[in-house]
Amino acid sequence: MDHTRLKFAKSGAQAIPLFALTKDAVSGWLEAQPDTLKVWVKAQGFTGSAGTVCTIPDDDGGIAQALAGLGDSASRKRQRFTMAACAEKLPKGIYRLETEHDHDRLEEHALGWLLSQYTFQRYKAKPPHEARLICPDGLNSARLETIAAGEALTRDLINTPASDMGPDALEAATSALAEAHGASLSVTKGDDLLAQNFPMIHTVGRASATPPRLLDLQWGTKGPTLVLVGKGVCFDTGGLNIKPASSMGLMKKDMGGAATVLGLAHMIMGLGLKLQLRVLIPAVENSIDGSAFRPQDILTSRKGLTVEINNTDAEGRLVLADALALADETPPDLMICMATLTGAARVAVGPDLAPFYTDTHKLADALREGAQRARDPVWQMPFHDPYEQMIEPGIADLDNAPSGGFAGSITAALFLRRFVSNTAKFAHFDIYGWQPSPAPGRPKGGVGMGARAILAALPDVLDL
């Protein structure tokens, strides 16, 4: 998919000066301007409110310069990527940012501008945003373009419906990413999953016309080891515990964890981070036919733990468990799991926050700090040990769907932690992967959550 517009304009181009001003800074900026310009700006009603713009004409009717409103301190807390909102409103042209900002703020402006250029056009042509930005001085343009491309990859994968993004297509997308970066990809598919001891991946996906599989991408030969595990349920009917229509409508996004780790992998490989990366994606469809797994079935996992099935719609944790167990057999320095796992997480924190679980304080601190720098909000949730008994049904080692409905995100996280016993640093993200309404730099649809926060945290966590 073409994302050539998610790049900065060439620095040698003739550019329109752009002044990004907070509400408090507008009056001071105007004081230094000619009277005619003051009158013009006031006539346009520009006050520096967040996401507003004002263009100032030259003598020939073109644009001499432009103003972008950044709002006040309260609006900064309420809105990310305000510059993206401005970019979407500015007329066609190449712009050069003239006002000074600290590095993190400047990077947010530049990345937000790039992300504002994203549109999903696989099935319908859409006019591109015509306002382009020259990368501000002091920023690494290639780095920001790589991050934007990784986010665009995630969005494209989530936005594509299951008719064109089933396990075969997800494998093809992973293969294309591996080829682009010189990585290797091995695939275990169909009945070979049983032969190679991935029984729960096979069980969840066996009712689909498209065989289930485990994708295993590896890149890099030196440095600390990082494993990313992403839930790749390309469509989730709920299985025999079938979802109602209201809950099934967005299930093309149930591979959002896989899409997010692939976008993050593109960032890591594209930036050439000095580490050894492994990406594991169990790619399945949770479908219904005569071979579908049933409530009350008991499955034996790769790790040997038995699992009682009390709801076939709690399938994501099953496929992830086999992948996590594989990674844990040769424990990496850091393992991160990303999944659109529970509705309980959305009830707890809404669609904008990426909740995560970890027992490692250094990792938690690095993720929080990285999220703040990257403007990619996360929120730590507890591995609450007293709830362990909720996932122990008695007839088997584990219950995939404890009754009662309490603490659903926490019990799912505790379930996954049972399959990671050797890896010292582990985090699980229970993400949403969907932007329910348009926001600056984030149109309605698939969206990455947590990837930029993780990227920002890696140097501290892995001593890169």
UniProtKB/TrEMBL annotation:
Belongs to the peptidase M17 family. The keyword Hydrolase applies. It comes from the Bacteria. It comes from Litoreibacter ponti. GO terms for cellular component: cytoplasm. Residues 311-318 form the Cytosol aminopeptidase domain. One of its GO terms (molecular function) is metalloaminopeptidase activity. This is Leucyl aminopeptidase. Keywords: Aminopeptidase, Hydrolase, Manganese, Protease. Pfam families: Peptidase_M17 (PF00883), Peptidase_M17_N_1 (PF21337). CDD domains: Peptidase_M17. One of its GO terms (biological process) is proteolysis.
